[in-house]
Specification:
The complex is a heterodimer.
Chain A (H helix, E strand, L loop, with lengths): L1 E5 L8 H10 L25 E9 L34 E9 L7 H5 L5 E3 L5 E3 L9 H5 L6 E2 L6 E2 L5 H5 L5 H5 L5 E4 L1 H17 L6 E3 L12 E5 L19 H22 L8
Parallel strand pairs in A: 1-10
Antiparallel strand pairs in A: 1-8, 2-3, 4-5, 6-7, 9-10
Chain B lengths: L22 H13 L6 H4 L5 H8 L53 H24 L3 H25 L18 H25 L3 H27 L4 H4 L5 H20 L6 H25 L4 H4 L1 H23 L4 H31 L1 H16 L10
The chains are: A alpha+beta, B mainly alpha.
Amino acid sequence: MGFFTDTSVCIGCKACEVACKEWNHVPEDGLNLLGMSYDNTGELGASTWRHVAFIEQIKRPGDAPGPGHGHPDDSGASVLTESALGEFSADGSRWLMASNVCKHCTESACLDVCPTGALMRTEFGTVVVQEDVCNGCGYCVSACPFGVIERREEDGRAWKCTLCYDRIGDGLEPACAKACPTQSIQFGPVDELRDRAQLRVDALHEAGETGARLYLEDPDDGISGGGAFFLLLDEPEVYGLPPDPVDTTRDLPRMWRHVATAAGALLVGGLIASLRRDLRP
Amino acid sequence: MSGSGGAGAGEQEAGGSGVPAAAVPALTARMRERFGVHGRGQHERDRPGGDGHGQGQAGGPPNGAGAPYGGGGRRRGHGGGRGGEQLVVPRARPDSYYGKPIIKEPVWGSPDVPGYLFLGGLAGASSVLAGFAQAAGNHKQAKASKIAAAGAIGLSGVALVADLGRPERFLNMLRVFKPTSPMSVGSWLISAFGGASAAAAACAVTGRLPKVGAAATAGAALVGPAVCTYTAALICDTAVPAWHDAHREMPYLFAGSAASAAGGLGMLVVPPEDAGQAIRFAVLGAATEMTAKSLLLKSLGDIAEPYQTGRPGKLMEVAEVLTAAGLAGAVLAGGSRTAIKLAGAALLASSALTRFGIFEAGRASARDPKYTVRPQRERLAAKAAGSVTDPPSS
């Protein structure tokens, strides 16, 4: 089971952030004036499991349309008839909103590197921290290619989205998806969501929103697809997402080989150093 | 919103106060330059009106002149000059959301963790030196190195437990054995090594149970090298760009640095007439360390920048000088007691500084989104060009 977050219909209401906090008893971690549009929480973290990003963009006449801004009409006027909210308005501005969340990677680095087994994969294919096992080593924090999981400093343990493990086990949908008023957050079997997402992105392309693209939906990507994936209207990094994330532990077998070779070399070095007993170097 | 933004995403409201909107980016760019924000206060610098803004309008590379990634618009064809504006560099797309980091900065504390990288290496390589010294009948060297190994790994254990968010749960490390987690493998290695090296040291100091002592010494000497080099996998198996992308060279760097430290300590504490093994071990180690370090920086390309600038850059630079001096001293010391001890101290210090430098460089590379985004962009571009079919792993 997973999430498909269609950012083209996100209205930035933050109901997902609130519902998540309420259901999961996530502590308050600042409701601040960050100077980042309507964003008060800044980023995903130990106590922000859904985060709504607000990106204000201005397109001016004369700006060459980049690959991500393929509007045929360069004057800035909207060509959209569909309900994508990512369109540039007549004055050439647009306001992108996107609800970010843990990706529940199919190849999940946080889970792989966890030395205690606190991070586990559930029967739903999601990735969850067992808070009674986590000893706060912080390895998962550095391993996550998305900067999602974080150690809660006053608590010492690592926390992140559970995809509402308790709710989905009872046949309910996660709190954020339930609260989303525009179905920007959709919950369901990942395969089904992928089909739905493809239909949506095709419809947007047809409507002229050529900047629409799916992110992490591909089972052949660097994390073998996200359990949570997205429809974005601009490049991933604009939303604070890495453009081509790769599971951190994919290189680990090679690392172990080098570690073993280096260890062997060290032993040989000790032997070479001991072949003579005199002082010459 | 003011009209000063460009097409780049993440454009923020620039005006609002009395300052003419168009002047704001230029002003912030100048302030950046003035206060040399590169390398400090990432958060201050990366507030709204971040990279794309300043770069496009004022033409001042916010990342510092001469920075490998300084040029704007390298992956976006946002054409430069429009009438009336002086665009020195092409408009750049920002690397992230309001310039915020893409990945989280490691929560591992300093000096705990870099101190452990150093002490673990010192301990592991000392046990190797102790083993071969014992085999060669060099008992002064053997005893000194056994004590060093046990002491250093003991201190490491304390530092590592203290760095946990829940120190009282440190035994959870031994709930499972996971080859996919270098930290899990390391926990088992340290446990085995700690026991063996403590037994070896205790037998050497008390003179009791010589057979047990010999077995423990041999055991520690066999596990020791892994204790030295697994820490490379520990830090490289993360999303931290300056660590991860150095995973080929880091184990050799760590092995060399560890041998250099263990040899250096031997040179420092063992009488010169018995220090031959330590000197040769240190020389081999220091030479390996220097070679691996230069290969590492070369293969990192643009991501080598955090190792060469700011605080980590300084640490690495001082370490390099000390390694070279220690290496030269060890080779040229002859029988001079002072020269041997000075060289040993220099090598010991350089090993520690190198570990702190590497640790800090990793943190710096995590803080700045450009180190995460741009290599991935280049990878995508290469993929699109057809020269790469798979992520660089397999």
